[in-house]
C-alpha cells in the first residue's frame, strides 16, 4: 500500500541549490550525490533520536531517495526519457524506506530498448551501486512484466506497488494495465496464493513470533503480516491505505488504531535497529536488544530487566497483530471466496451454529447474555473436530466482550466447569488453549497467565517466551497421549496411558512457570496458585496437592539427573524419598521430559533421554523395594558382577582372567558402571598388552544415549587434562566423565560425548580420528597439554555470568564436590582439567551441563590419596586456579 506523500515528506532534506553549486565547482556527481544522501540520512537520524516517529521518517527517506535517483536519471538517461521509465517497486514503491532498506527499482523499456540503451542502462545501475545503496534492480519491457507477473506472485505483488519516478508515463500506464487484477491474478487466486505464502513463511519460523531473536519483518505478527493484509485489500478492493479497511467495514476504529499502533511500534524498532547495525538488519539479535531497550526508555527493575520489559512489549505487540491478521484474513476469505454464496447454518446449540465449517454465534448478543459462552466456544471446537475454525465475526465479538471475564465470571460455577471440561477433553486441548490465548481469553481467565504473556528471560537457555514455552509443554504432554506419536517417546506413551487423571498433568504444565518474574521462588509461588486454582475448580484435596507438588518440584528430576551421581544408590534412595510413590514419579517424569523438550530445541538429546529414563527406572525399583529397605551396596555389586561374568563367559573369557583384572578394581568401579560396560572394559583390558597402552575404545551409540569412550592407561598427572583438551580440539562436548584409578597405577576413564549438534558420533572415520588423537595426546600424559584458542560465539558475548566456585563434602563416598558455575565458552573444560593437574586434584566423576550461556558443572574430586580435600591450601590453590583459568579464557575468547 502506497503511504508515500511528497508533501508529508517535506523537501528540507535535499538542497538542490547546494548540490548544483557543488557540481558547478567541479565536484564529481557521484561524490556530490553521495554527500547529499549522507547529509539527508544524518538529518533523518537526528530527527529520529529527537523523538520523531519512524512513521514520519520512512516516507521522508523515500522522498530523499527519489530526489537523488532522479538526479542520476537525468545524468544517464535524460535523452532517452521517451523510450524508458524508472519505477520504484516493493517497499520503496510504497514510499516506505528505512535506513538500511533495499532500494528496489525497475527500468521499463520498449521492446527493443534493452539493446539500444544497454550502455546507458548499465551506467545508471552502476551509479546506484556507486552511491553505496543496496539496490534491487531489473530491466523489463511491458511484455516481460506481464509474463513474469503471471508466473510469480512475488513479481505481481511488487508491480502492484509500483510508483513512477521519472521517464515515460505511457510505458508505466501500459504496465499497470496489463498487470491489473482483471488481467492476471484475479482476487481469488491472488488471495489463495498470498495466504499459502504466509503459511509457508510462518512455518519457517515454527509458527511462533516468540523466539528470543525474532525477525521483526518476517516472523508471525511482524511487518510482513501487515503488508499481507494491505496487498489483499489493494488487489480486491483497490484500497490504497489501511484506513480504507474501516470504510469497507473490515476493521472497527479500535482495531484500526491497534493495527496502526502495532505497525508504528515495529517501524520504530526497525528504524532504530538499522541505525544501530549500520545496515539492513531485521533480526532482533541479542547484540542490539539491550541498547534498544535503553533507547526506548526502559530501565532495570528489581525482578525485570529493561531488555525483558522491552521485549515483552514487542511480543505482546506481535501477538495482537497476529490476532488482527487472522481475523482479517478470515473476513477476506468470506468476502473473496464465498461472495454471493448463501449457506444455511447448522445449529449446534442455542448459542452456537456452524456455517461453511466455521463456528459462529447464533446472534450478536450471545456473549452479553451468556458470558460463560466465552469459554464454551473453545469446548465446542474440541467436541466438533469437523469445524475448521471460528468465524471472524465471532472472533471480533470474543475480543469485544472478553472484558466480561472478571472476578465474578471466574467464580461462576458454569465457567469453572467449562474450563475443567476443556482440560479433560480427549482431543483438541493444545489447539484450543492456543486459540484461547490468541483471543486474549486465557490471560483474562487466569490473570497470572496474563502477566507472563510475552515475558522473555534474557538468556540463551529459554528460547521462547514464558507463555509460549508453557503452551509448548502442554502440547508435548498431549503428544504422549496420542497413539500416532507413540514412536517418539514409547516409555512416555506407556506411562501416560496408565495415568488415572491426565488433566492433572496438563494443569501442572499450565502452572509450572506461571509465577516467573514475580520475585522469589517461582516454583513455590506457582505451587500455591495451582493449589488454589484446583480447589476453586472442584478438584479433591489429593488431586490439588498432586498438581501443586508437581509445580513445586518440576525441576527436581532434571536437577537430580544432571547434577548428581545417579550411579550412587544413596542418591536414588534420597530421590525416591522425595518422590514418595509411583504415581508421583510417573507424573513428574512426564512433566520433566515435556519441560526440557519445550525449553530449547537443542536441549533435548539422546543422552538426556537416556539419563532421565535411567533415573526413572532406578527410582521405580527403589520404590518397589520400599523406602524403608534401601539397596545394600554389597548386594548390588555382587549382582552387577554376576551379570558381567555371564556376558564375559559367553564371549569366551576365562574366569581366572576376569578375577585377576577385577581384583585391581575397588568397589566404586562396580557401583558406577553397568554390567555391559564392565564386560566391555574387562574384555578390552584382557586382550591388551603393555604395548597397546594407552588403550582407547569408542562405542558410537551406546545405551546411555551418546558416544561412549573408554580409556585404559598408565595414570599420570595430566591424563584428564590431555583427554579433555583433545576432545575439545575435536569439537566434541563431554556430557559425563567417570574416572577410576587402581593401586597399581592405572586409570580407567569413561566419557560420554556428543557432537556439537547434540547427536552421537556416527561416522566410522570420525571414531578412528578420536582414537588416534587421544592415543597421540596420552602418549605424553606426564606433560601439560597445549590448549586450543577459541573465538567466543556471537551470542555468548552479550551475557555475563558471575563465576561461582562452591565446595561441599560427599562423606559417604569420601569425595569433595566442586560446583563450578560460570559463563560457558569453548575450551572451558580443558582449562578446568589444567587447574586440577596444577593443584594435584584427582577427578572421580563429572556432570557437565550447559544451560544456555551458563556452564553449570559438578566435579567429584579427591586429593592424590583418594581422600576428600582437607588442606585449606589446596582449596585456595584450586579456587585461585579455576578463577584464573576462567579469566584467561575470557580474555582469549574475547579477542
TrEMBL record:
Coiled coil: none annotated. Uridylyltransferase (UTase) activity is inhibited by glutamine, while glutamine activates uridylyl-removing (UR) activity. Residues 1-347 are annotated as: Uridylyltransferase. It comes from the Bacteria. GO terms for molecular function: [protein-PII] uridylyltransferase activity; guanosine-3',5'-bis(diphosphate) 3'-diphosphatase activity; phosphoric diester hydrolase activity. Its EC number is 2.7.7.59, 3.1.4.-. Pfam families: GlnD_UR_UTase (PF08335), HD (PF01966), NTP_transf_2 (PF01909). Its cofactor is Mg(2+). Residues 466-588 form the HD domain. GO terms for biological process: regulation of nitrogen utilization. Residues 708-789, 817-894 form the ACT domain. Keywords: Hydrolase, Magnesium, Multifunctional enzyme, Nucleotidyltransferase, Repeat, Transferase. It catalyses: guanosine 3',5'-bis(diphosphate) + H2O = GDP + diphosphate + H(+); [protein-PII]-L-tyrosine + UTP = [protein-PII]-uridylyl-L-tyrosine + diphosphate; [protein-PII]-uridylyl-L-tyrosine + H2O = [protein-PII]-L-tyrosine + UMP + H(+). NCBIfam families: UTase_glnD. Belongs to the GlnD family. Modifies, by uridylylation and deuridylylation, the PII regulatory proteins (GlnB and homologs), in response to the nitrogen status of the cell that GlnD senses through the glutamine level. Under low glutamine levels, catalyzes the conversion of the PII proteins and UTP to PII-UMP and PPi, while under higher glutamine levels, GlnD hydrolyzes PII-UMP to PII and UMP (deuridylylation). Thus, controls uridylylation state and activity of the PII proteins, and plays an important role in the regulation of nitrogen metabolism. HAMAP family: PII_uridylyl_transf. Has four distinct domains: an N-terminal nucleotidyltransferase (NT) domain responsible for UTase activity, a central HD domain that encodes UR activity, and two C-terminal ACT domains that seem to have a role in glutamine sensing. This is Bifunctional uridylyltransferase/uridylyl-removing enzyme. It comes from Alkalispirillum mobile.
Amino acid at each position: 500500500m502506497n503511504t508515500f506523500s511528497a508533501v508529508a515528506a517535506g523537501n528540507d532534506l535535499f538542497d538542490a541549490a547546494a548540490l548544483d553549486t557543488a557540481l558547478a565547482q567541479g565536484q564529481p556527481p557521484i561524490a556530490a550525490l553521495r554527500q547529499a544522501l549522507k547529509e539527508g540520512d544524518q538529518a533523518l537520524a537526528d530527527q529520529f533520536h529527537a523523538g520523531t516517529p519512524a512513521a514520519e521518517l520512512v516516507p521522508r527517506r523515500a522522498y530523499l531517495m527519489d530526489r537523488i535517483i532522479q538526479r542520476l536519471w537525468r545524468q544517464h538517461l535524460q535523452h532517452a526519457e521517451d523510450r524508458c521509465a524508472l519505477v520504484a517497486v516493493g517497499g520503496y514503491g510504497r514510499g516506505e524506506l528505512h535506513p538500511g532498506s533495499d532500494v528496489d527499482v525497475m527500468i521499463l523499456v520498449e521492446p527493443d530498448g534493452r539493446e539500444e540503451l544497454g550502455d546507458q542502462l548499465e551506467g545508471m545501475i552502476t551509479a546506484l551501486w556507486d552511491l553505496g545503496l543496496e539496490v534491487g534492480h531489473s530491466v523489463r519491457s511491458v511484455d516481460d512484466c506481464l509474463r513474469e507477473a503471471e508466473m510469480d506472485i512475488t513479481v505481481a505483488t511488487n508491480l502492484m506497488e509500483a510508483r513512477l519516478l521519472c521517464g515515460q508515463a505511457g510505458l508505466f500506464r501500459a504496465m499497470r494495465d496489463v498487470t491489473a487484477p482483471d488481467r492476471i491474478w484475479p482476487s481469488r487466486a491472488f488471495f489463495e496464493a498470498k495466504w499459502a505464502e504466509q503459511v509457508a513463511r510462518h512455518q519457517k519460523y515454527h509458527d511462533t513470533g516468540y523466539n528470543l531473536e525474532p525477525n521483526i519483518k518476517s516472523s508471525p505478527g511482524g511487518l510482513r503480516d501487515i503488508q499481507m493484509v494491505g496487498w489483499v485489500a489493494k488487489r480486491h478492493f483497490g484500497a490504497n491505505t489501511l484506513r480504507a479497511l474501516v470504510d469497507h467495514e473490515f476493521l472497527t476504529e479500535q482495531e484500526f488504531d491497534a493495527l496502526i499502533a502495532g505497525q508504528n511500534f515495529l517501524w520504530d524498532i526497525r528504524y532504530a535497529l538499522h541505525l544501530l547495525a549500520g545496515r539492513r538488519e531485521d533480526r532482533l539479535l541479542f547484540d542490539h536488544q539491550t541498547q534498544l531497550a535503553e533507547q526506548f526508555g526502559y530501565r532495570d527493575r528489581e525482578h525485570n530487566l529493561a531488555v525483558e520489559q522491552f521485549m515483552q512489549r514487542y511480543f505482546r505487540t506481535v501477538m495482537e497483530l497476529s490476532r488482527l491478521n487472522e481475523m482479517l484474513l478470515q473476513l477476506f476469505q468470506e468476502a473473496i471466496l464465498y461472495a454471493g454464496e448463501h449457506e444455511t447454518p447448522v445449529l449446534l446449540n442455542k448459542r452456537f451454529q456452524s456455517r461453511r465449517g466455521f463456528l459462529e454465534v447464533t446472534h450478536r448478543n450471545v456473549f452479553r447474555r451468556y458470558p460463560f459462552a466465552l469459554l464454551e466456544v473453545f469446548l465446542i471446537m474440541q467436541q466438533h473436530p469437523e469445524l475448521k475454525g471460528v468465524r471472524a465475526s465471532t472472533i471480533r465479538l470474543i475480543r469485544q466482550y472478553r472484558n466480561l471475564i472478571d472476578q465474578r465470571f471466574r467464580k461462576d460455577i458454569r465457567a469453572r466447569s467449562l474450563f475443567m471440561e476443556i482440560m479433560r477433553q480427549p482431543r483438541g486441548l493444545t489447539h484450543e488453549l492456543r486459540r484461547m490465548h490468541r483471543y486474549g481469553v486465557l490471560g483474562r481467565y487466569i490473570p497470572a497467565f496474563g502477566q507472563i504473556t510475552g515475558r522473555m528471560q534474557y538468556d540463551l537457555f529459554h528460547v521462547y517466551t514464558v507463555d509460549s514455552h508453557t503452551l509448548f509443554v502442554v502440547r508435548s504432554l498431549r503428544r504422549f497421549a496420542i497413539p500416532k506419536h507413540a514412536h517418539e517417546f514409547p516409555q512416555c506413551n506407556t506411562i501416560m496411558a496408565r495415568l488415572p487423571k491426565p488433566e492433572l498433568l496438563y494443569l501442572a504444565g499450565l502452572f509450572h512457570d506461571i509465577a516467573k518474574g514475580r520475585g522469589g521462588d517461582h516454583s513455590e509461588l506457582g505451587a500455591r496458585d495451582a493449589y488454589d486454582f484446583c480447589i476453586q475448580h472442584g478438584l479433591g484435596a489429593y488431586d490439588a496437592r498432586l498438581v501443586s507438588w508437581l509445580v513445586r518440584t518440576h525441576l527436581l528430576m532434571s536437577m537430580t539427573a544432571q547434577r548428581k551421581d545417579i550411579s550412587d544408590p544413596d542418591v536414588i534412595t534420597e530421590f525416591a524419598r522425595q518422590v514418595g510413590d509411583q504415581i508421583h514419579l510417573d507424573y513428574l517424569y512426564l512433566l520433566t521430559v515435556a519441560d526440557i523438550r519445550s525449553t530449547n530445541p537443542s536441549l533435548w538429546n539422546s543422552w538426556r533421554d537416556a539419563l532421565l529414563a535411567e533415573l526413572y527406572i532406578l527410582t521405580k525399583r527403589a520404590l518397589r523395594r520400599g523406602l524403608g529397605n534401601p539397596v545394600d551396596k554389597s548386594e548390588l555389586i555382587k549382582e552387577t558382577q554376576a551379570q558381567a561374568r555371564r556376558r564375559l563367559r559367553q564371549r569366551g573369557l576365562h574366569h581366572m582372567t576376569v578375577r585377576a583384572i577385577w581384583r585391581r578394581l575397588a568397589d566404586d568401579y562396580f557401583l558406577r558402571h553397568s554390567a555391559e560396560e564392565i564386560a566391555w572394559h574387562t574384555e578390552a583390558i584382557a586382550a591388551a598388552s603393555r604395548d597397546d597402552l594407552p588403550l582407547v575404545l569408542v562405542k558410537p551409540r551406546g545405551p546411555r544415549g551418546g558416544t561412549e569412550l573408554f580409556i585404559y592407561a598408565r595414570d599420570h598427572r595430566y591424563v584428564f587434562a590431555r583427554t579433555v583438551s583433545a576432545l575439545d580440539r575435536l569439537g566434541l562436548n563431554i556430557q559425563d566423565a567417570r574416572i577410576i584409578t587402581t593401586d597399581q597405577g592405572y586409570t580407567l576413564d569413561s566419557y560420554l560425548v556428543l557432537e556439537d549438534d547434540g547427536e552421537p558420533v556416527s561416522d566410522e572415520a570420525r571414531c578412528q580420528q578420536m582414537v588416534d588423537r587421544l592415543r597421540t595426546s596420552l602418549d605424553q600424559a606426564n606433560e601439560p597439554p597445549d590448549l586450543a584458542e577459541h573465538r567466543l560465539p556471537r551470542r555468548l558475548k552479550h551475557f555475563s555470568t558471575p563465576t561461582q566456585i562452591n565446595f561441599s563434602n560427599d562423606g559417604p563416598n569420601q569425595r569433595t564436590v566442586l560446583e563450578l558455575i560460570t559463563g560457558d565458552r569453548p575450551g572451558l573444560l580443558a582449562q578446568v582439567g589444567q587447574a586440577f593437574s596444577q593443584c594435584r586434584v584427582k577427578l572421580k566423576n563429572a556432570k557437565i551441563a550447559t544451560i544456555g550461556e551458563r556452564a553449570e558443572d559438578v566435579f567429584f574430586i579427591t586429593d592424590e590419596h583418594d581422600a576428600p580435600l582437607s588442606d585449606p591450601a589446596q582449596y585456595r590453590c584450586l579456587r585461585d586456579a579455576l578463577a584464573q583459568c576462567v579469566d584467561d579464557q575470557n580474555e582469549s575468547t574475547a579477542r
